[in-house]
Amino acid sequence: MIVRQQQWSIQVLAVVSDTISKQFVKFCSNITKESVVDIKGKVARTPSKIGSCSQKDVELYIEELWVVSQSADQLPLLLEDAYRPVNGDDKDADIRANLDTKLDNRAIDLRTPANQAIFRLEAVVCKFFREILTAKGFVEIFPPRIKNAVTGNGTNVFKISYFKGSAYLAQCPTFHNIIAIAGDFERVFTIGPVFRPEDSNSHRHLTEFTNLNLEMTFKHHYHEVVDVIASLFTSIFKGLREKPTAGTLTWTIQIENIHQLDSYQSEIKTICEQYSVEPFKFLDPPLKLEFPMAVNMLRENGVEMGDEDDLSIPNEKLLGRLVKAKYDTDFYILDKFPLAIRSFETMPDPDSKVGSNSYDMFMRGEEVLTGGQRIHDYHYLMKRAKHCQVDIEKFAYYLDAFRYGCPPLAGGGIGLERVVMLYLGLDNIRIASMFPRDSKRLTP
Fold first, then answer.
1. Which regions span the lipid bilayer (predicted)?
2. Number of other CB atoms surrounding residue 351 within 10 Å
3. Which of 5, 84, 238, 327 could connect to 96 by a Cys-Cys bridge, CB 3.0–4.6 Å?
């Protein structure tokens, strides 16, 4: 039989001998798939490699076996169907489990080697984010996820009953992070869920996802913040690419005297065995383009768009391909977005009639971070709020934070699941969300 522990597996044999009876061997052969067992045995080297297991040079001879938890006779999802390679010419495509079946039976689906690796790497990305920023003097804070008012255009929000009134689930923690900056914390970050009613079944949208958000002050120019965020991304990418060192997260399995240590590249290789993708490429320091340059690149390739139009998803992807072809990078920064498509607290570009001091960052042609310089002058912020027809009364808690002085600041928010999806080259964000929520899914 094959015994699996997390992403590792070993071949196990029950052989009739002076101490092992035929009845015991029969008992072993009748144990249902996915049952939990405790085994005591002896490790032996094999004359040839075992292709179906992660432990290819050894096998385990059973001395004792105990069934800890018996699995049902009929499984709703066979593990071998769940981890069949995703390949267009796969001859077994008709028996490969579809994504909905996997998500409906997540407790089984999570046992596949690829899923074990994906969610360990997701934890590592979050760990790197926290450790890198903490080392740079950031303080982690924990803002509320229930708010009295909506941000942005006011349409992309979940409204909930709140005692005798109404409240809203947070779209992002930016405003509270900014208030913390006004409270003299200088550098803060948050990690937590945000909620957006995306009535879409696209490959990149969820109604709940994990947001990695940061805000910081700067001395002379908001590009100081852009450079910190850019360095954060490249440090994460390097951390995933290189072998873990002392103090970083590793995973081990011990079978008597066998000890296996995996690097993150080993995890990525495991994922690529099911999801075949191109390795992620990036530059250090990252490529930085300005929005008008991106518009010109798109126009030169047949796209019609105005100077103040936002990028559509197809145009984002096309731009990503153009950047990859010209600069050979999957990660880049797009600066100086039009002010007309940014929120009211965004600082206008003093050198442009239409631009702003705001930026997005992209991986494989898809946006993973939106950010910008925030207006820190109270009177100018009030002017912008009135110009954008913001309900000043509802945002008094935010606006009042600037009455008493606030340093220049900027920041941004990152979607954790989207970063993992795009770094690994997965084709659906639900694969990078352990329990995804979208317009059609509220379970498990």
1. none
2. 8
3. 84
